[in-house]
Amino acid sequence: MATATALFANRDNWLPLAQRLTILDKAIILMEEQSETLAMNSAHEGGKPLIDSRVEIDRCIDSIRLCVEALRSESPKPVPMGLNAASQHRLTIMKKEPIGVVVAVSAFNHPLNLIAHQIGPAIAAGCPVIVKPADDTPLSCFRLVEIFHQAGLPIEWCQAVIPKDLNVAEQLVTDPRVAFFSFIGSAKVGWYLRSKLAAGTRCALEHGGVAPVIVAKDADLTKAIPALSKGGFYHAGQVCVSVQRIFVHESIARDVAEQLTAAAKNLKVGDPLSDQTEVGPLIRAAEIDRIDSWVQEAIDEGAECLVGAQRLANNCYAPTVLYNPAADSKVSRSEIFGPVVCVYPYSDLNDAITVANSLDVAFQASVYSQDIDTAMMIADKLAASAVMINEHTAFRVDWMPFAGLKHSGLGTGGVPYTLEEMQIDKMIVITSKGISA
Question: Annotated catalytic, 206?
Answer without folding.
Answer: yes
